[in-house]
Specification:
The protein is an alpha/beta fold. Helix 3 (47-57) packs antiparallel against helix 4 (65-82), helix 12 (343-374) crosses helix 27 and helix 14 (400-413) runs parallel beside helix 15. The radius of gyration is 30 Å and the shape is globular.
Length: 828
């Protein structure tokens, strides 16, 4: 296995051992990225893998321990998929220690790279996923190999392929990863704590020393510029001690930090001073590198390509769209994103390229929505008197949000087009009732409905709730017409259910993935409901949709979706928002407690149980781990029952239990045979026990904001006052930003926006479209202003020429076809 991959594995193991505190590498994991990136390319690691690792670890320090764990597990899974041999013991051939190529000032050397046993998939071409990179007006010469460039021979070209640079077109779209702004250099004496700056100085001293009993190494460098001195520190890069020489001029870029009252920079990016850049006061692009490639050399090749070819690029964006959005031409944007004339030119260039990404995404979802609506869907007429009668049977009145959602669905059913609707609501807002009304309408019309949930617990919860609602009244369904199908359903019963679905005797089927596995066929499936849709992949949703012909689709989520994502990733769906609680519900009172205040939480639980209520206690782990210092459900359950709540009945629920065992525990909790349920996040969704009034979450700092809000939503489902108590792993974590946000707000939509800002879109996207978020190179799914601008322009264009048939739109049509390809389809 590659040494760089082994090194990454080592860091991940250390992080797990240290409870994901970001101290496996002194200075944090992000501090080692630049040099790991260089080593990985030197090893021949796939460029897509390198970019995935760098992209996920760049903001590692900002993540919660739980999110860090998820991030490292995700990287590990990606690596195992790429390198199946991971984990098998194989001799590792040591790689000689080589200073990164960025330190050499000569052109790439021509030695053969050591041959390796592993075969590598080539890096993805840089221009492949860029909007508008390929149209009929793109000069054919841009397909030329890089050997046409002066100074690039066959071996250099092969080296550049590791960066995804195969052709001149790839060079054109090889955007810099950052910039050194020599036009706004600050003298050291003018630096302020917290600034992100570039500083130039000459090295005054260099020292290197081992720390942590020789397990780590630190390099200290002092630089000066005549106005003052600045200390620079690098961790675990011992070769730097020999590379830096007194008197050498270097440029460093990073955040100004402070230590013992003195300004310092930790692990800054650095380069040898290029006097040409220094004297011309330019903004200098910094590109991703690979072994034996230097910044100066690559910048020279990039300059050749950009200067000659960027002005020859024909803009795919129609002039009307570009001017309305107040954006520069594509050629101007390409010139200034590589070699900007000023910060304002750079900002406009980046905005133009980011606009293209969001605009293409918007055009795609609008087209998909148009395609979905272009087919015929069966019309289900809904007599108003019948619908009102079914509502009157309910033991409660619908909220205005529920009434609006039902009205939206009724309109969809009568439109003659398949419904394609997202029902998003906060925790406890009553989405199941709306789903039940939709199912009743379909059953009243003689057709079948299927609802798919991600877990058996959630499926069973839906089955119970729907059975109660759908069988009520004279016109209700029979119990035999509503069935449950999960993985643990006995085979004989599965066969009976399959036969009932084919014959049409079963009108409603509730289940998990079991609905799309095996020979499950329907007589007349007309409504598919997917709950917690972000937990399903595109293929799984498509498989359910294929069980019927042009059926109606309702996807539901209890994770409120930020507006920016609703406009982009979910832009093909009609959206119903449920943002009010059923009548009588009280806000859940949330408190953050220090670990030493745990007894206060136990006292509250005892008091609530004495009043006839019940409580949840959530732990982040099932069983204790040597690597993770966190409380675990199995061990704590035994301790709580024996020592803390000796006179109370304490149940245990976790994901490793069999489905039948889980259901038995949940049934005992629902029927009050248990006073307290100790559980893991298996109860995050689908558990509805109205008598539960206390949610105690241990290790709360290990959970994401959306997950904390979901767990809190397991209480407060009745009319009694409810409480959520958050206990982090340590006193230091009581000031955790997510925990404080939980204490401040019960509004899932407010918390969702904060979660998006803190952790990015991954929590909301799930497996919906693997390319979103990570596939955007310039745009951010948090930039609501840009997203709304792009959506506005896309809708305006779509309204006048949806098929892009007009002459002035045909180039855009070609670019869109190339960008979307054939398989970026199902977005629902």
């Amino acid at each position: 296995m590659y040494p760089s991959i082994e090194q990454l594995q080592k860091y991940a193991r250390l992080e797990a051992k240290n409870d994901y505190k970001n101290n496996a590498v002194i200075g944090g994991l992000a501090s080692m990225l630049e040099h790991w990136e260089s080593d990985a390319r030197n090893d021949g690691v796939n460029e897509d893998i390198i970019q995935a690792v760098v992209g996920r670890l760049r903001d590692y320090s900002r993540l919660s321990p739980a999110s860090r764990k998820d991030t490292l597990f995700g990287i590990g899974n990606r690596l195992k998929k790429e390198y199946p041999e991971l984990g098998k013991e194989k001799p590792i051939r040591p790689r000689p220690e080589v200073a990164p190529a960025s330190l050499t000032e000569s052109a790439p050397q021509r030695e053969e790279a050591p041959k390796r046993i592993q075969t590598q998939r080539p890096a993805r071409p840089r221009s492949e996923s860029v909007p508008g990179a390929s149209t009929s007006k793109t000069p054919i010469a841009l397909e030329a190999r890089l050997t046409v460039l002066q100074g690039v021979g066959p071996r250099n070209a092969t080296t550049l392929e590791k960066l995804g640079l195969y052709t001149l077109r790839d060079m054109l779209y090889n955007f810099p990863r950052r910039y050194d702004d020599y036009s706004q250099l600050k003298p050291i004496k003018s630096l302020w704590y917290g600034e992100q700056v570039t500083v130039i100085g000459s090295i005054q001293s260099v020292t290197g020393r081992p720390i942590r009993n020789g397990k780590s190494h630190i390099t200290d460098v002092m630089i000066g510029d005549g106005t003052g001195a600045l200390k620079l520190t690098w961790f675990n890069q011992p070769w730097l001690t020999n590379r830096f020489k007194q008197g050498m001029g270097i440029s460093v870029s990073g955040k100004v930090d402070q230590y013992l009252g003195r300004l310092i920079m930790k692990s800054p990016d650095w380069e040898m001073v290029d006097t040409e850049n220094l004297h011309t006061n330019r903004i200098v692009p910094i590109y991703a590198l690979t072994a034996k490639i230097t910044q100066k050399w690559l910048r020279k090749q990039m300059k050749q390509v950009i200067s000659y070819w960027a002005p020859k690029i024909t803009d795919h964006l129609p002039e009307s769209v570009r001017l309305a959005a107040k954006l520069p031409r594509l050629d101007t944007a390409l010139e200034n994103v590589h070699f900007p004339k000023s910060q304002s030119h750079l900002k406009l260039a980046r905005e133009r390229l980011a606009f293209d990404e969001i605009f293409f995404l918007q055009m795609g979802v609008l087209r998909q929505k148009r395609d979905w609506q272009s087919v015929m869907g069966r019309i289900f007429d809904v007599p108003e008197e019948w619908l009102q009668a079914r509502k009157d049977i309910l033991p409660f009145s619908l909220t205005d949000s529920q009434e609006k959602a039902v009205s939206d669905i009724v309109m969809d059913f009568g439109s003659g087009r398949p419904m394609n609707r997202l029902l998003q609501g906060d925790v406890g807002s009553g989405k199941t009732v709306v789903a039940a009304m939709a199912i009743e309408i379909i059953a009243h019309g003689g057709a079948q409905s299927a609802i798919m949930a991600p877990t058996s617990i959630l499926a069973e919860q839906h089955y119970r709730s729907l059975s109660q609602m759908l069988t009520a009244g004279e016109e209700g369904l029979k119990e035999s017409e509503i069935r449950l199908l999960v993985g643990d359903t006995p085979e004989a019963r599965k066969q009976e259910i399959r036969e009932g679905l084919i014959s049409g005797e079963i009108k409603v089927i509730v289940g998990t993935h079991a609905l799309i596995q095996g020979p499950v066929e329907f007589k007349d499936l007309q409504l598919a409901i997917v709950d917690e849709q972000h937990r399903f992949g595109v293929d799984q949703r498509a498989a359910l949709r294929e069980k019927g012909e042009n059926l109606h689709l309702l996807v539901m989520t209890a994770t409120p979706i930020p507006r920016s994502l609703a406009l982009t990733v979910h832009g093909d769906l009609d959206i119903s928002v449920m943002n009010e609680m059923p009548e009588g519900r009280q806000p859940i009172e949330t408190h953050v407690l220090r670990p030493r205040e745990r007894e206060r939480a136990y006292t509250m639980i005892r008091a609530q149980v004495l009043d006839g209520r019940q409580a949840f206690i959530i732990y982040p782990l099932v069983e204790e781990s040597e690597k993770i210092e966190a409380r675990a459900a199995v061990e704590e359950h035994a301790s709580l029952q024996a020592e803390v709540f000796r006179k109370l009945r304490v149940g245990l629920l976790h994901g490793r239990m069999k489905a039948a065992e889980k259901e038995e525990v949940m049934e005992k909790f629902r029927t009050k045979e248990y006073d307290i349920l100790v559980a893991t996040t298996v109860v995050e969704v689908g558990v509805d026990v109205s008598n539960a009034t206390v949610m105690l979450i241990e290790g709360a700092d290990r959970f994401g904001l959306a997950q904390l809000h979901q767990l809190r939503g397991r209480v407060g489902r009745g009319l009694e006052k409810s409480y959520c108590l958050l206990i982090p792993s340590s006193d230091d974590d009581t000031e955790n930003e997510r925990l404080l946000a939980m204490a401040e707000s019960n509004d899932g939509f407010v918390l969702a926006e904060k979660d998006l800002q803190q952790r990015g879109p991954g929590e909301f996207l799930g497996t919906r479209q693997s390319g979103y978020g990570t596939g955007l190179r310039m745009a951010s799914l948090t930039d609501i202003d840009l997203i709304e601008k792009a959506r506005e322009r896309a809708k305006a264009l779509f309204a006048i020429d949806a098929n892009l048939e007009k002459e002035e739109h045909q180039l855009l049509g070609e670019a869109l076809a190339h960008f979307w390809g054939e398989a970026k389809g199902d977005m629902s």
